[in-house]
Amino acid sequence: PADEVEQAAECNQPFLGELLGAADLECSLCIRMFFEPVTTPCGHTFCKECLERCLDHRPSCPLCKQSLREYLKAGSYSPTVLLQDIMLAAFPAQLAERRELHRAEMAELSNLTKNIPIFVCTMSFPGVACPLHIFEPRYRLMIRRCQETGTRRFGMCIYENGKSFADYGCMLEIRQLELLADGRSLVDTVGGRRFRVLRRGHRDGYNTADIEYLEDKKVDGEELQELQSLHESTYQLAQRFWEHEEVAPRHLSLQHGPLPEKEEDIQASADGPMWCWWLISVLPLDPSFQLRLFSSTSLRARLTQLQRVLLALLQPP
Ligand SMILES: [Zn+2]
Ligand SMILES: [Zn+2]
């Protein structure tokens, strides 16, 4: 009889999935099953990602408007473990589907040639540091995604009249990120490869682009020898300029330090010698001229233009 009682109890026990509908486990922000649910101090539950996107705009609960300033400041979003356990027990198939959806989204966001995120702000160059202050909600989202996908990379383009951004840009790699208490962040980045924009797009408020990476045309034989001597003479000119107290503005050398060393193989990198980019970034040049130098895939043309600029700057007034 004891067995029978136990069996009866089991039969009367309603199944969790019958008590709950899938709609009970839906995030009110994305109207999908919770993914990595977190619960705010006011007791409301959202997907972590959905809540973060709301907090990018204002530090209050999207449902009850209670201030979440302190919650944001603490910066730790602990998962609502019980809810995760319930979802796994009651709706394992739906949960697996939701995870797969997230995985697919992450894969799409990780693509570094199609629909890459574009930050429209400043000229940046291969190998050159580019510190950024992130405060706009759309860029907070962009940077967070770069961190979450693990690419830690995004494209940087300058604004261009008539287009949303220029046809050429530089990949930036996040070296360090300091998250401030109010959700803004200070991001230390360094320039990676140059690219050309093939197609413009949008994603969740920020610009995106399909791109192709630029590569300097390689030369050999006599042409290479000529290029090497042009490189050598331009570097010497750069040294003369940089070490010339009267012409190189003092604040420039204080701010940027010494001219970088030249490289052994001038064609080793797809972007050519780094010192050229460094110099182009610190010289007082118009961004449209910088962009012209930037978009050329001829090292010879770049060096020739640099010589012209340096000679003009070395000219006594
Ligand atoms: Zn959600
Ligand atoms: Zn709330």
Automatic annotation (TrEMBL):
<keyword id="KW-0479">Metal-binding</keyword>
<dbReference type="Pfam" id="PF13923">
    <property type="entry name" value="zf-C3HC4_2"/>
</dbReference>
<dbReference type="InterPro" id="IPR003111">
    <property type="entry name" value="Lon_prtase_N"/>
</dbReference>
<feature type="domain" description="RING-type">
    <location>
        <begin position="27"/>
        <end position="65"/>
    </location>
</feature>
<dbReference type="InterPro" id="IPR013083">
    <property type="entry name" value="Znf_RING/FYVE/PHD"/>
</dbReference>
<feature type="domain" description="Lon N-terminal">
    <location>
        <begin position="106"/>
        <end position="314"/>
    </location>
</feature>
<keyword id="KW-0862">Zinc</keyword>
<dbReference type="GO" id="GO:0061630">
    <property type="term" value="F:ubiquitin protein ligase activity"/>
</dbReference>
<dbReference type="InterPro" id="IPR015947">
    <property type="entry name" value="PUA-like_sf"/>
</dbReference>
<dbReference type="Pfam" id="PF02190">
    <property type="entry name" value="LON_substr_bdg"/>
</dbReference>
<dbReference type="InterPro" id="IPR046336">
    <property type="entry name" value="Lon_prtase_N_sf"/>
</dbReference>
<dbReference type="InterPro" id="IPR001841">
    <property type="entry name" value="Znf_RING"/>
</dbReference>
<dbReference type="GO" id="GO:0008270">
    <property type="term" value="F:zinc ion binding"/>
</dbReference>
<protein>
    <submittedName>
        <fullName>LONF1 protein</fullName>
    </submittedName>
</protein>
<keyword id="KW-0863">Zinc-finger</keyword>
<dbReference type="InterPro" id="IPR017907">
    <property type="entry name" value="Znf_RING_CS"/>
</dbReference>
